[in-house]
Design a protein that fits this description.
It is built from 4 helices and no strands. It is mainly alpha-helical and 112 residues long. Helix 1 packs parallel to helix 4 and helix 2 packs across helix 4.
């Protein structure tokens, strides 16, 4: 491995992660999978498949032998992070908001 190849691979992986994290073609399906699929395991598997598909596309367009696999791993990590954000933050906050709205509706009905 040439000197600087490890640093280059790490930077390529980080670039793949950041690129996937903000890509709407990955963000929308991963968020939808996290919201629509009832089983967390299946939602995580769907997100991994979406991240893998995005990473394979990036791998096909990679210019160097080290850039491709690092970008693929970055894409998988970003998809995993996105689905975990949906499962661990977005869904509980949505449930809390629905409970608060239901409680507010109940309180307003009692005041009438």
């Amino acid at each position: 491995m040439p000197a600087g190849a490890l640093e280059s691979a790490l930077l390529d992986g980080l670039a793949g992660f950041a690129g996937t994290l903000v890509d709407p073609l990955v963000l929308a399906p991963v968020a939808a999978a996290g919201i629509v699929i009832a089983s967390p395991l299946r939602a995580r598997l769907a997100a991994a498949a979406i991240g893998l598909a995005h990473g394979l596309w990036e791998l096909a367009t990679a210019t160097g032998p080290i850039e491709g696999p690092a970008t693929l791993l970055g894409s998988l990590a970003a998809a995993a992070l996105l689905v975990e954000l949906v499962l661990q933050v977005v869904l509980p906050l949505a449930r809390l908001a629905l409970r608060c709205l239901a409680l507010l509706g109940t309180l307003l009905d009692r005041l009438r």
